[in-house]
Protein 1
Amino acid sequence: MENSLRYALSLALLGVASSSNAQSSVSLYGMIDAGLVYTNNSGGHSNYQLGNGLLSGPRWGLLGSEDLGSGLKAIFTLENGFNPSNGKMGQNAREFGRQAFVGISDSHFGTATLGRQYQSNFFALDSLAQGSLATHPYDNDNLGASIRLNNSVKYQSVNYAGFQFGGLYGFSNATGSFADSRAYDVSASYTNEGLTLASSYLQINNVGSTTNPNGSVVAGDSPFYAARQRTYGAGARYAFDASTVGIVFTQTQLGDATAIGSGYAGTSSNLRLAGNARFTNYELNGSHRFTPAWTLSGAYTFTDSHLNGEHPKYQQITLQAAYALSKRTLLIMQAAYEHVGNAGKSGITADISGVSSSSTSSQLVTEFGIHHSF
């Protein structure tokens, strides 16, 4: 009798689980990479080290949805960033520092989410840039996803014949200081066959706020400390056969800037700023798939900056080769060379993303590693 009851209970529980799985799902996903990194000048010395984030930042996450009927779904994402070299959590030791949000998705009207999120312009423009070692100086336009926005409400439209748009508002969460570390953005993109176009605008008030620890972008969460950051940009890419070619333009304006922080998003400089600053980036990139396994990509970036009364001009060339061992595992080989001219007394030296800054105006970085997704 006892065995019969156990059997009946097991069948009942199995039926509940099957019914639940038919209506909802939770998926575990992630990616991890690591490799050998050589820098010809790291603080005045050549450097060999084990690095990570060669292709994209290591992470694991949970992605969930529940079907509510009539095209409506409840969704959530929890995503942790970590350092595989030492096992430590990233994003200032947050458990889910990359993303943590919940929301509603409608097949006709779009998706609304609330929590800690990427800004909407990241998804519109990021895919058009080379990324990784080619990240623009100090990730000044956030195409390298240095900044996530706390306390944010985001809307993303459905695809209307190739056209999509979105917007986000990040609350300051401060009583009596509505604008202290608040953020907002808008973005739009259009895709038609091989052509993709995108544009965006982002503004953050009191970016890197030291006066509001509960704000949208607080101290330690941004490469910059400034009263205001405005970033706008546009880009285009065309894919044909086994090749792509693209161009990206962005500009970041900093009002009453005080510093470029250190130790965030590969930024090694700890540079004091005085007054307004500006970074204007022009990137030309392309890729070609020689075989189903081999892909070569590259980018040239020119960055015209204005800070501390000087006009430093960055030029960087980045090359990347990827060999697919399988659908989920890649061997990565890449190199970048950067030269900064016209730096004057600004204190600027070459500073390629992900490594310590050079003691001179030039820097060379090479990387070889493995990338695995799951």
Protein 2
Amino acid sequence: MKMRQMWVWMLLMALAFVNERCHCCLEEERISLLEIKAWFSHAGAGSHELEGWDKGHFNCCNWDMVVCDNTTNRVIKLYLSFVNSEFLNAVEDLDLNASLFLPFKELENLDLSGNQLVGGLKNQGFQVLASGLRNLKELYLNDNKFNDSILTSLSGFSTLKSLYLSNNRFTVTIDLKGRVINHSYLG
């Protein structure tokens, strides 16, 4: 009986050692990152910014523009600004597919600025994103092509501390409670 306990203890120690040596992201999040890459690539963009995101590289915590939590190995920050561009020229207008970001349960910072985003896919816009990303603190949507239609849907982000919306196509200014503040163009 003692020999069996010793083997179990040695196996547990070996697994702990291997697990500690591998600071790997979750498979579900790695797959979602590859889907985000495909979404940008479908528009003809992101070829050089996301080229390090590869099926063969299992540890997405080491990928460019991805930051993981050191304890949970979950993705906490995604810096995807200007991925939909080639030499600072936009490739194609994109509709946000929020379902691509839902697996990132611990995401605190999402930067989608400068990607020619024009709105959200039907039933996959900001309402879905707000309901799924309960830890999001910073959201960068500046330098896109959003219009007034998205403003009221942003009120669902209850955990946001910073929201960046400059340089879009808004004609009114609305606070996150949905009240119109003024009718100025925000550029």
Protein 3
Amino acid sequence: MTAPARFRRAVPTGATYLLLALGAVVTLAPFVLSIMTALKSPLQFASQPVLNPPDPPTVANFTDLFGGRYDFVSPIVVTAQVVAVILVGQLLFSVFAAYAFARLRFPGRDALFWVYLATLMVPQAVTIIPLYTMFADLGMRNTFWALVLPQVFGSPYAIFLLREYFRSIPADLLDAAKLDGAGTLRTLRHVVVPISRPILATLAIITVVTHWNSFLWPLVITTGRQWQVLTVATAGLQSQYNGNWTIVMAATTVAILPLLVLFLVFQRHVIRSITITGFR
């Protein structure tokens, strides 16, 4: 290959890597800035440019966050409990509903599915007041179940995602299970779910990230500290302590770390679910 030809091939490749590098910088810069700010003292943050690294770094913000002054342990525990219950419910009920829409035949199946899917177009803000009124009338305001019940029975996006994946499973595989005497539940448990692990892992990550970062509904339905979730507690730090950004960034860093660990653990399954499923 001649030098001009190699140059013509190298230019698009170099431009692609440059765009990817710029995208990575734009994506990672807020996280890096958050960690840098969390490792500064309030005096350093007030007297130095924002982009200056902490000199010297300090963990005082993290010790203050968990040392009793700000009581940040309770919101983490509440958020973890809420996310765990919602995750189990979302996976369980979404699998059942998606399999019914994908593989079972009953009158009005497709019409019911598309009507249900159309609720994705309804903004959350539209349903906040009716939901709040409903839970208030039931005496469930500021309770754990008020945080989880609106989301625990599946969601249109989760059901749509799983339905499309279940439809890609070869019918011969399911017919073979039926010939072996497996009913619907046994087929679902021993055939469909095991081969759907990549998409289930993806759905699990989406569910955890979505509800770990949920803010509007917990803010509306809860008051006080008992059932305060992580996002509401972080917002409270900003207003309660007059914009102490080093503490706020420490809280933000703590909130982000579990999500990063979750993605690193399950990234292989996510990539598999996005690329070739093996059935198409």
Protein 4
Amino acid sequence: MPSGHVYVRHLAPESGPGPRRLPDPAPDATERPAGAAWAPAGMLRPEWAAEADFDIFHLHFGFDACSPEQLAELVDVLRARRKPLVYTVHDLRNPHHADDSTHTAQLDVLVPAADALLTLTPGAAAEIRRRWGREAEVVPHPHVVGFDRMLRAANERTQRADGPFRVGLHVESLRASMDPMRILPTLVDTVRAMPGAVLQVNGHRDVLDYDGARPDTELADYLRAAARAGLLELAVHDVLPEDALWSYLTSLDVSVLPDRFGTHSSWLEACRDLGTTVVAPTCGYHEHQGPVLTYGHDESAFDADSLARALWTAYLDRPSLGTTVPRRRAQRAEVADAHNALYASLLG
């Protein structure tokens, strides 16, 4: 769970039989404020796990709002029913939490209790081994973008080959891991020195509108002043629908990730699907996911020179770091086979 997430959907074979994943139950209305778009996953309620008809409980994410005690209660229910717990460790450091103590306490419940552990990269597996003495099977992140849309993106990229070299920074709703103000001066100065290059910054209204739900005035002031000076193009909007998001990423030559902590990135995978070069920070295990350009950035330091070098490499060399439909199709089959084999072994 959650079964509706694109990552979980793409663990299934593209065609043919596979495991039956139960639909996500409705969240508890008492845990969801009126009008909220998010609520804790219903499958995490111990009372649901105590009554539902399933063979294996496979957890990915969605437990942010659960206390370690609630997760321990869920583990107890699964053990009492002799239901195997599989946990795919996506985040060793939660990108939404400035203070990592709660997430660490949650992992201290889930990782030792799981009957089987998966993760996405060798680096994450090594950290799990170091922190908990557990072995996690490494199964790579499957494609994010649909195969038909990947093919369309390849055609769109060919048709705009003579356009400006476009570097994108997407601040979204500015989750805790992001520090765009730290890197923006280097981005602006570097892209300005590239003939025919454009820096495009996109962000959501809740952060970049002064009357938004949680405005960042310093960031909004900087971006608007830079846009007025012609140093960048600024686009402020609500969360983009999926196809608009894929069109936006396809329009970029480079997407720069501004994170100072984190573990893995589905944004990175979507960029690879769409042929967009990723410039990723050295925090976490982004470079283990697939070919990217990296720059030094974590909670303790930012290496401006390495960011400039990565951008110039992308500009001068135009590396082809994306993937293809045949590769993703073969990978999806391998990912599905790995999960099916694990489930079969747990059910004996």
